[in-house]
Write a structure and sequence with these properties.
Layout: H1 3-7, E1 12-16, H2 27-43, E2 48-52, E3 58-64
Antiparallel strand pairs: 1-3, 2-3
């Protein structure tokens, strides 16, 4: 993990739109999957990016600044 990059961040912004089929019956499993994926991406050094649901649709983004 690149802790030097993380130390330099003062804000973290996360936006997820839960109004599509991937969240329809029970949003919790898909939301949990996305949060785990975002955490993995941050640990790998990605400090910003788009978020895609299980169907490949863009449902949000995250960024640090």
């Amino acid at each position: 993990m690149n802790t030097e990059t993380i130390k330099d961040t003062s804000n973290f912004t996360l936006n997820i739109d839960c109004e599509n089929l991937a969240f329809e019956d029970d949003a919790a499993p898909e939301l949990a999957r996305l949060l785990r994926e975002i955490a993995d991406r941050i640990e790998s050094g990605s400090m910003a990016g788009n978020i895609r649901d299980i169907n490949g649709n863009r449902v949000g983004s995250f960024k640090t600044n």
